[in-house]
Amino acid sequence: MITSKDIGSGRNVFSDFKNTAWVIFPEGCPLRKANKSWLQDDGISFDNTIEVSSLDTMLSCVRAGIGNTLLNRIGSRSKG
Description:
Layout: E1 22-24, H1 30-41, E2 49-51, H2 55-63, H3 73-77
Parallel strand pairs: 1-2
């Protein structure tokens, strides 16, 4: 999980993400579908979303504190 430093104090406690904004890729992305299902199964809202088309934009939004995202290990390492 990649988060703004303001949320969860780096602990990544899911209760801290109940009403967060999620920075996601467009419909059709398999990661988006998996994340939505996983979060909703844990009772976390996926209603507040910001759709972006590039990894750079996604990570910039998270760094700016606009929202959070879930990436696989390869995606999270590609831009530090």
